[in-house]
Amino acid sequence: MNACRILLVAYQCAPGMGSVSQIGWEWYSRLCKNNAVTLVTHVRNRAALSAAGAPCPGSEIIYIDTEWFAAPLYRSAKRLFPRSEHSVFLVSSLDYFVFDFAAYRLLRQRLAAGAAWGVLHRVTPVTLAAPTWLSRLNLPTVVGPLNSGLNDPQAFRQQVRQESTWLSKARTLGRALDRALGSSRRAARILTASRATLQAVAPQYRHRCRMMLENGVDLQRFSPSPWPAAPNIQNPLKILFVGRLVAVKGLDLLLQAVAQLKQAGVLVHLEVVGDGPMRAPWQAQSRALQLTEEVNFHGAASQEVVAEKMRDCHVFCLPSVRESGGAVLLEAMASTRPVIALNFGGPAEIVSERIGALLAMESPEQVVSSLFASLLDVTRNPGVWRQRGHNGRREVEARHSWPAKITTAQALYGELLAERSLSCC
Questions:
Q1: How much of the chain, in percent, has pLDDT values that exceed 70?
Q2: pTM of the entire structure?
Q3: The domain containing residue 145 runs over which residues?
């Protein structure tokens, strides 16, 4: 389609400031290449955006300042939940509602003064629990991609409880607000990333939904590379884990599987990239399992270092028991690495036998056993797993790269503009 004047609203939007903020940045920086974009975002993103060269040529940025509310809210959350990043995030997210209303009032004034946009697209937050006033601005409105509605896996209550995800029940308030504001009712399209998200949308609005993962991949940064020499009695099986070291990521299950591999006589090395409150307990578990030589805790790393680690591994493993997204799986696939994950949430939308292994989630003991079996199979059938890595790259290129997502979005904007033109005739 031709260039479009886009009003892009992204509460979180900045490179290098977390996965959701990266999503906002990718939409903004890539849409700017062929469209006139007005970005509306929080003032806390200004420094990172400026450092990245924003505003992009031909675009403008409107910063909304709600720090008078956000800063004390965050400090209170840290005091209330010192051991749960998830809970701090949920409480702090209440600032979004203040941001959204402030953005609505300002944009309403801009429209009254003569501003003109063809389409409004609200890309972050990525949850249904964050409805928006903006759909009242009488612009064709796209919301998403959204990824929410995921329930807790019953067999893994211990891991989930440690993250205090009971606070997620507060998200029902967001859905009540959605009904009150008419956010879903007024949206022209709702982009949903998962089956769970689609089911969480009110039935009467599902016909407006389109499936699209919220995450995408930078194909230049995560590029194909040769597989390392096949694992054997001289070359260790190289496993990579990347993620925040929090209970739901399930690294403890992977450590147990690695211990079983060692007991079976498999030469193995696990590289753990990431940091978080569970680092010390999991390092202690690694020592207790006598894996000090087999497991390396690297700590947090840049995207460039993660890409390098991808190129050095045989297989990427994400044993998360509650993963709504799975961007790191897409990055591994883009790097031509096979992936192993659990059949729940976001990974269930991404992983298949064609590109890796999607494991059942009956109990922690069963997951450990399945991880062991799959990893052992990598050593016994390296050719099969190498091919799965190549299959994953092709799938990412076709469906999950940022260029593919932007092309799909441009076509969607064209549909909305055509519909609006017809309705005005």
A1: 92
A2: 0.83
A3: 5-216+401-424
